[in-house]
Amino acid sequence: MTMGDFVAGLKKPHIVALCGSQRKGSFNKLLLDSAVKHLNANGATCEFVDLADLKLPMYNPDDEAASFPEAAKEFKKKLVACDGLMITCPEYNGLMTPLLLNALTWATRGEGGMYDAFKGTCATVMATSPGKMGGLRMVRSLQGFLQDMGCVVIPTHCAFGGAFKLFNKDGSIKDVRANSSVQTACSQLIHHARFEANRDYNCKIVKAIKGQKVMGEYGAVFDVL
């Protein structure tokens, strides 16, 4: 058996794609669309989850105890089941958008462990912006945020400035170097997520890793107040 035959026989990794922008014509949504096309064409299955369509209320512990949103439950299930995350997001004062932060916060609540939706999941973060830094501060802060929740963050710094000139009219990436960087980041995510997709989850070591608490993890809010 060749290495190619072996890889071909592996389960395809399932990637959930998220965009932190809900603006019509969002540059970061165009960036995500390019990434999704590459992921689907190179050995992964990719599912886009529209965070705006979830219509999640601003997180409040009172809502969690009284009436947990069904959309939040379904969102967490999708994250628990996936092998990788591809996230693009605008930079708001150096940080992720409230839309993305609120969705990720709801995904740490509800049934199961606080960080079950993130532990061991491979994640890639990208951004674009009209400014020269391209959202790099947001990329770095979100990478740390995800890592603290247990994600295996792929150390790529895909932040592209000059967003007004980055895309063709059809939404494809015009800049050759930027397009190459996106393809490389996607290939790295597929490589690592494929390993996650084909783990033996009955293995005692894997169970021990998944069962470890990570920094800041506690439980239901109403159990500790």
Describe the structure.
- With 225 residues, this protein is α/β, with parallel strands linked by helices.
- 44% of the residues lie in helices and 12% in strands.
- It is built from ten helices and six strands; from the N terminus they run H-E-H-E-H-H-H-E-H-E-H-E-E-H-H-H.
- It has helices spanning 3-8, 27-41, 51-54, 61-66, 70-81, 98-106, 136-148, 176-197, 204-211, 221-224; strands at 14-19, 45-49, 84-88, 122-128, 152-153, 158-160.
- Strands 1, 2, 3, 4, 5 and 6 form a six-stranded parallel β-sheet that branches.
- Strand 3 (84-88), helix 6 (98-106) and strand 4 form a beta-alpha-beta unit.
- Helix 2 (27-41) packs across helix 8 (176-197).
- The model has no long low-confidence stretch (mean pLDDT 90).
Helix content: 40-55%
The SSE string, one letter per element, is HEHEHHHEHEHEEHHH
Mean pLDDT: 90
Largest sheet: 6 strands, parallel
